[in-house]
Protein 1
Amino acid sequence: MSEEKEYGPFEVDQHITAHSRYYAGKIGSLFYTTLRDHKKFLGIKCGTCDKVLWPPRGTCGRCFSQLSEADMVEIGPNGILETFTLITYHEPVHPRKAPFIYGIIKLDGADTGMAHFIDEVTFEQLETGMRLQPVFEEERKANILDIKYFRPL
Amino acid sequence: MTRELFEQELISMPMIVDVPYRFAAGKYMSRFLIGLKDNGKFLGIRCPSCNRVQMPPRIVCAACHVKNTEWVELGQEGTLAGFTIMYLPLTDPTTGKLHKPPFTYGSVRLDGCDSVIDHLVNIEPDVNKIWIGMRMKAVLRSKEQRTGDLSDILYFEPVEGQEKPGRQL
Amino acid sequence: MKRNVAIIGGGQTHHAARRHDVNQVEMVNEAIRAALLDARITIDEIDAVLLGNMEFFEGTHMTDCWLVDGTGVYGKPGLKITTGGTVGATIVCAGAHHVASGLFDKVLCIGFEKQEEGDTGAILSGVAHPLYGRSMAGAAVGYFAMMGTSYMATWGAKEEHSAMVAVKARQNARKNEYAHLKLDITIQDALNARMLAYPIRMLDMCPASNGACAMILADEKTARDRCTKPVWIRAMDSAHNEQFELDWRDVTTTRPIFSKVSAARLYRKLGVKNPVEYFDVFEIYEPATWAELVWYEDLSICGPGEGFKLIEDGMTEIDGPIPVNPSGGVLSTNCIGASAMLRVWEAALQIRGDAGEHQVPKEVNRALTTAYGGTNWAVLIALSGSSDE
């Protein structure tokens, strides 16, 4: 009869590393190339709802109308701060080291907001309703970080 | 105004999701992995109801819903139940190590066991030199190098002195 | 079933290797708009939306939540389902359950995969047990290859038989405007293709496709009032398998094989004595050519070990007595999240007589569809042009 041994907990460390690539589609691509090449923002107008949506998309989620590049309209570049917060803890997945501020900015002409970093201002100085303007990177790559951050006007 | 015909530039964003995990092996699996690591042994369990011997061991037999309590020490030899010769490079997702093709990969049923184990087979990747039913033995890493993982088995190797039968099984 | 359930419409995208012109939401939306048009129904009339794909394949989670704009589920109930390769069929079953329960009348079912966007090898390795098998994962082709060597050794089949399946699939696909791999290939082409893992060559394996499929399931009253050719879901069955038990590749195993178990139960439910006589067409889930031969046997279309003779005799050709995969099957189009649903939709098209060039040239009243997924479990769905036969 074999003796029963107490086996301690056995744990194994592993990783899964997955490489993916997200395609923006025609409408998304037009937004990003316009941002990169002209430092301008495009939203998309749903005629049925009479709303301008950002990010621009192929279907209006609310009324299910099909939208196309022809419906894209210029928005911003400035906007209103809808809400914001200060991140004070660190996570490896964060794009910046804490502390940093980010918030939702509703660009002029759009009915929905954009999340982005807010800089050149302290947390105490910020107030919802403040007007902000974007600061662009010198070298832009057609992604959302072509905008460095927003700052008060 | 001249009309320019252009192909729209289509944007894509590459992303890498890298997630670390720490898995707890659980009671039965721990005993199996420790048995492999410390003693170089293969431990299975036998279901009291259907008599299946399974490796790796699990607490409950899925078919019978009965608790498995009988541990079975399996030998190091078995029979090749299936094989393939891989011409595609295979990266071990747990180590990032690349197995360069061509290499042989097979399914071995250890003597006394009902389930099979998939692993590398150390044999010339020639379809005429490998057959189903071939006798195989496990080759393990040295004790100092074992970590308590299936990779503690380096590969399976054909038992010496075998000849391909005239008619395939 | 508590209430009868019918497919009143459906649609699919033109499946392709690359879809850079649309993002995931927009691609899914294409299939949905096609389905709504086919069913002559608006999104407002849909009561619930069920959506599925391969879990995390494209590196994005909670697809039921963030694809909302395109799926029309805004403000409505909906679920995401991920069950591996079977997901397309599982969603159809779930949709049927929703309608049969009496709690929902019209359910939109969606299966999709924007496969080029994901790291399928890495994510698929997550299916394998982390402590027992993950280091060998990524050899998905290897699993089917081992099935091939086992099949040939056991029954005396040859590589030519695998080539015959490959040719049938892609030649059928040439008649299907939505299929991905429409290839005018011969047996010799298949035998000369690049070897991936013996005996599986490039043409013996399914592609990676970008695509989506959507179907609308409805209750009997809606189906009879609004649809000229409803296709009824007569029975469903599915059987899960244990992890680790990969013995299905050893074709002589006496362990229960879940495709067989599920088929036997489904046949009992419907009183099927001979599936070849009962069903007019089969749409089966074959990720590799050898899997098709094994399906013939598991579904009792022929006896054990006779699958390769069936293809040799041309019995399962599109104009043969037992047509299997007139659409081109998974071997021609594999957007994994949609693949199993495409089997159901293609079978429905056959029953409706709407399959165009790939319509089988005989009367089709009843069809059987199968789905296959990791750890070897199966989902079977039987369709009929009649709600009680």
Protein 2
Amino acid sequence: MNRHKSVIPGFGISMGITITILSIVVLIPLCSLVVFSAKLSFSEFVYTVTRPRILSGYFVSISTAFIASLVNVVMGIILAWILVRYDFKGKRFIDGIIELPFALPTAVAGISLTHLTTTNGWVGQIFYKLFGIQIAYTRIGITVALIFIGIPFVVRSVQPVLEKIDIQYEEAAFILGADAKTTFTKVIFPEILPAIISGFTLAFARCIGEYGSVVFIAGNTPYETEIAPLLIMSELQEYDYSAATSIALVMLGISIVILSINAIVQASVSKRVNGKI
Amino acid sequence: MELRKENRVLKFFFITVSFVFLGVFLILPLIYIVVTALRDGIMGYLTAVSDEYAIKAALLTVQATIWAVIVNTIFGIAAAWLITKYAFKGKKVLSTFIDLPVTVSPIIAGLIYVLTFGRQSDLYPILDSYGIQIIFAVPGIVLATIFVTFPFISRELIPVLTSQGTDEEEAAALMGAKTFTIFRKITFPHIKWALLYGVVLCTARAMGEFGAVSVLSGHLRGKTNTLPLYIELLYQGYDFTGAFAASSILVVLAIVVLILRLVIEKRGQKELDLNK
């Protein structure tokens, strides 16, 4: 009877419901992925994922997601900073609108951003006429869509940490003669760095897998603007489940690596905070 | 004094940059959708949104969303209760599996259901003998929608239940209260705002899911097209007014979600302060 020491009844029923639904929705489908992957021959797997078109898909997905997430790190810090430290008109509006990318369907965002950034769109024509830059149907367009998708991640992870920083630290730094720049880089930045890394990795992982908003703006030219999720989609449409699964396995591997890096960083930070290093 | 002056310049700069950034990336797309939807006048808009297939697609989206909310609410409450009220082995593994669906690409989510229920699967002949079709049909769309919103409700409930502790439930249990009485009288009042918040998030994501649903849908007009898929179809057919008109419905819902979020957060916060 050491299984559950709690006196609260209902362990059996809550465990039953949880495991049943979890099995149907997550565990059984995941098992079928494992079973199906085990049936793939290794050489076929390697051949599929090293085809130039597939490699280029991975490169496009990773590079655009990385740049978009970097932009969101910079903007995320600025947004979190103004929301926590400043008072200004429209603050509540900004705080509310930041979540829009979570609430607005990705396909809707995708078609709207595409139309805005084509060479005769509202924004696209300015860039095209002034700088000769095309946004829609290029990698820049993909990056734009991914910036949209990733906006809330860094803000929402940095904001609560910034709120908790005691103003006394900054006062102490100021009295000791530090200027604003030194105070930020030496006092505030180290405090919010773990939150920045966490926000960055979550945004990065989300952007690599993003499909709905990107597929419209990308133009989907092979070797140029074809993202990895789209390659899975086209293999599925040709009923080539082995190829689709192979490409997906590599992407799952990339996500696991990204999320593990974050887990390691967060664990080492919490160790340091608890004084174990 | 010099420091303050510098800060004021910086403050102005940061706020301007933020407004421009959010204005271009978030507000402009919304304005564009509304303007394009109304391009052919109000009558053109009404014709586009009252199209037979648009209504069927909207109904399918509503159906999938309702299923996702029901299943994830039941699951969310059970899982959050299980994780916060009892000590047992494998809790961490369980939490990892619950959070897994949101870290997986929607296309991969669709793929794993195709592998599970598709023609090449061992389950297919069994389901087929009962006449059940899952992929390229409505059940697949519903499953995909449940999958992509899976942790949304439990994730809102777990922090609230953790901070509440187990003392009150233990006291009630020792005085002889039954499971559902404890839940209804003690736990539920604590979690109702978090639950409502989770439902709102779940609804928002469920009605907009595109990638996973796109893999599992048969793309049959009027049968297995959800609203986002219907928008894609119109867009690819160069019916931009129709596509943006249908999009505007989802834009309105997204704005309602954002407002509800702020209201719920405020109400929940107020109640929390009162309890203290």
